[in-house]
Amino acid sequence: MPGQPAGFFGGAMDFRQHVVSGTARGIRRFAGGASVFAVQALHSRCISLLTVTTSLLALDIYAIVARL
User: Which domain of life is it from (predicted)?
Assistant: First the structure.
């Protein structure tokens, strides 16, 4: 910019770029952690659902065999 010292302008731009990149990195890190947590929670719920379904299926098979 004309009339402004190059060092000040460059330093301000470097600082702004540093803040923006740090914020973006923090958001990515938070989102990554949140998605890992969500996948783990979903995985545990799926395992629980699979366990319940398997138990119900086993009870159904037991009831069918008991009738024979």
Answer: Bacteria
